[in-house]
Amino acid sequence: MTDAIGVAAHDRRVARDLDLLRLPPPPWTAARPDGAPDVIVVGAGMYGIAAAAALVMKGIRVLMLDRAPEGQEGPWITYARMETLRSPKHLPGIALGIPSLTYRAWHEARFGAAAWESLGKIPNGLWQDYLTWVRSVLRLPLRSGVAVQRIAPGAELVAVDVAEAGVERTLHARRVVLASGRAGMGYAVPDGVDRALWPDRAAHTAEFIDFGALRGRAVAVVGAGPSAWDNAATALEHGARRVDMYVRRRELPQINKGRGSATPGFFEGWAALPAAEKWRILAYLHDLQAPPPHETVLRTVRQPGFHIHFGTELRGAVRSGDGVCLALPDGGDAQVDFLILGTGFDIDLRRSPELEDVAGAIATWADCYTPPAGLQRPGLGRFPWLGDGFELTERMPGACPGLSRIHSFNHAAFASLGAIASDIPGVSAGAERLAHAVAAHVFAEDIAHVRRELEAFAEPELQDTPFFVPERFPSA
Fold first, then answer.
1. Distance CA 361, CA 376 (A)
2. What is the pLDDT of residues 69-93, one digit of tens each?
3. What is the rounded CA–CA span in Å between residue 70 and residue 247?
4. Which of 198, 203, 209 is nearest to 187 (CA)?
5. Residue 362's CB: how many other CB atoms inside 10 A?
6. 333 — phi, psi (to 5°)?
7. Model pTM greater than 0.90?
8. What is the Cα–Cα distance from 86 to 96, expressed in whole angstroms?
9. Helices 447-456 and 427-445, interaxial angle, to 10°?
10. 103 Cβ contact list (under 8 Å, min separation 6)
11. Could you give the CA distance from residue 129 to residue 117 in angstroms, rounded to a whole number?
12. 252 SS3 class
């Protein structure tokens, strides 16, 4: 026997909660004659949904775009190759302060309270189902299969060039939110790895990999972060003959400091910290890194054919016959059939094709802050220097009008605003900050329209009282 009420019944509960809160409010912004939305959200994964939902709850007109087929947005059932989320199950998800929008409420509605109590961590597929449900129950407007090719900010509008079903066109909006996740600003490829290895002999963990083709093959995985372990396990589970993991460190990190910083204090207070204090903590987290979850390690080491090499930094990789030759320390080398880079994500604005025309105008941390001796971290310096509402800022003031109309609501926001634009714990806090900022910007831009609406408001409060003056209200 189950106490699940079913998703349809839960949808009615969500509708009731929204009605009690009078959400979403009617749009209050000045509608454009061409029907252009106030905001285009690029990406319909977790953070795209959160951004669109928070904006709609503020009465902002939104359009979401995603290149993926509907239901396959984000990494969860594409390149995220862990079996379950790494985050604890009790995190609310995209709640925005509404209990019925939490993952737990949805899970219990679908499977029952007992199923929730027995759940360990959330399977990836269920998380994707939940995200799709949030988008559906909130009726967020999405156009799937739309690839954003170029974003050109202007003084009043942002032009967004897209390709959809082989047709290219230009859309416009007042603002654009880049909700492109961790991979949105590029991933790291070590020096010496020949790009000519792609696509048949190498891949990054953030890319498509045909694991079935690795059956009986020798695979090298570079890196020891969570994604590296996930991919090593997946390759072995698909029949790879052996997987060799090459790790620069002498031992694995032992503590996930990111878990220790997933608090409201970090989410709400990081943006207001002085740059020097932010940098000190960023360098600390950068140097320690995070260990892979223990479940992921156990999943991998139980597979025969797994070998790990500590203190072994990859020097280079080139094509060699039908395989890959790896250059290892002390002049050694190794031959493998396929190379997987679990080397994480790198912030490089030049690698974001849609920002190609404006990348040189965007201010970075390296432009705006000089760390003290001993704390230089070039990778951190490449993060964009953002405004309090995730706005891109200009390297040279006045050189790129309208640049601040683009909001970087993805991993690139980490240095300026904290972990509220890429990880599950901070999703609601980040979306609320974004929505507050956008609403304030649009209100200021629309103040003439807002004033006209205010002046036109004429509800006769004193009607049916002795003090009503009917001649003031001819239509009353």
1. 23
2. 999 999 999 989 999 999 999 999 9
3. 37
4. 203
5. 23
6. -145, 170
7. yes
8. 21
9. 80
10. 89, 91, 92, 93, 122, 127, 130
11. 19
12. coil
Antiparallel, parallel or unpaired: β 146-153 and 306-309: unpaired
pLDDT at 259: 86
CA distance 109 to 278: 41
Residue 162's beta-bridge partner residues?
Answer: 148, 169
Question: What is the length of the chain?
Answer: 476
- pLDDT category at 460 given cuts 50, 70, 90 is very high
- In whole angstroms, how far apart are CA 176 and each of 34, 148, 304, 388, 392? 17, 11, 48, 16, 11
Both 86 and 230 in one domain: the answer is no
Range(s) of the domain holding residue 200: 195-254+291-341
Q: 129 and 228, same structural domain?
A: no
Instruction: Phi first, then psi: give them for residue 54, nearest 5 degrees.
Output: -65, -35
Please give the span between the terminal C-alpha atoms of the chain, in angstroms, as a whole number: 59
Instruction: Count the domains in the chain.
Output: 2
Mean pLDDT of 212-217: 98
Residue with tokens 């939110």: 177
Which amino acid is located at 375 in the chain?
A: L
Quote the tokens at residue 172: 């416009």
Identify whether residues 58 and 100 lie together within a single domain. yes
Residue 184 confidence (pLDDT): 64
What type of residue sits at position 17?
D
Q: Are residues 119 and 23 in the same domain?
A: yes
Within this chain, do residues 151 and 23 fall inside the same structural domain, yes or no?
Answer: yes
C-alpha span between 164 and 120 (Å, rounded): 40
Convert the pLDDT of each residue in 226-250 to its tens digit.
999 999 999 999 999 999 999 999 9
Question: Could you give the CA distance from residue 141 to residue 102 in angstroms, rounded to a whole number?
Answer: 20
Neighbours of 327 (CB within 10 A): 15
Which tokens in the block code for residue 167?
Answer: 């047709």
DSSP string, 276-329: HHHHHHHHHHHHH--PPPHHHHHHHHTSTTEEEETT----EEEEETTEEEEE-G
In a domain, 456, yes or no: no
User: Mean pLDDT of all residues in the chain?
Assistant: 94
H helical segments located in 29-178:
46-56, 103-111, 113-118, 124-137
- Residue 210's Cβ-side half-sphere holds a number of Cα atoms within 13 Å equal to 5
Residue 46 C-alpha from the chain's centroid: 7
